[in-house]
Every structure is written in structure tokens, then in C-alpha cells.
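Weekly sync, protein design subgroup
Attendees: M.S., D.O., the rotation student, P.L. (late)

Item 1: inverse folding check
M.S. brought a backbone from last month's batch and wanted to see whether the design step gives back something sensible before we order anything. D.O. pointed out we never logged the input encoding, so this time it goes straight into the notes. C-alpha cells as presented (67 positions):
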């Protein structure tokens, strides 16, 4: 059994990498939303909202140890 995902093009979208118009496609892989450009190697993955909200962009702490 193969798991085929439908890939949809986003009309009017411009690739942030190569600036090509109408080359961005949206698809789901393992329930994760992904974007890819058909003209260059640009890829972007959208994290789930609960994962994105749990990260803190300006923090460099690996862990907190309480003895």
C-alpha cells in the first residue's frame, strides 16, 4: 500500500529562494505541512502550533538541573 499525498500549487506565490513565480507547492507528509519549490531546492516545514508555541527563539538553555 502506498501513501500518496496530493501536491497543490499556490497561485501567485513567489519562491523566497529563487524568486520564481507559481513554483511553490503545498503538501502533507506524515501529517506535517510542507512547502517546496519545483525550480530550486527550497523546502519549508510548518510545525504544529503546540510545538511552535513551546519553543523560545531567544533562549540558548539546553536544560535546567535542580540538585
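Designed sequence read out in the meeting:
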Amino acid at each position: 500500500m502506498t501513501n500518496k499525498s496530493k501536491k497543490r500549487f499556490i497561485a501567485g506565490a513567489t519562491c523566497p529562494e529563487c524568486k520564481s513565480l507559481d513554483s511553490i507547492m503545498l503538501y502533507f507528509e506524515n501529517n506535517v505541512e510542507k512547502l517546496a519549490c519545483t525550480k530550486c531546492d527550497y523546502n519549508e516545514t510548518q510545525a504544529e502550533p503546540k510545538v511552535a508555541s513551546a519553543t523560545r527563539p531567544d533562549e540558548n538553555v539546553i536544560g535546567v538541573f535542580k540538585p
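Discussion: The chain has a mean pLDDT of 79. The beta strands are 8-9, 24-29, 32-37, 43-46.
Action: P.L. to compare against the previous round before Friday.
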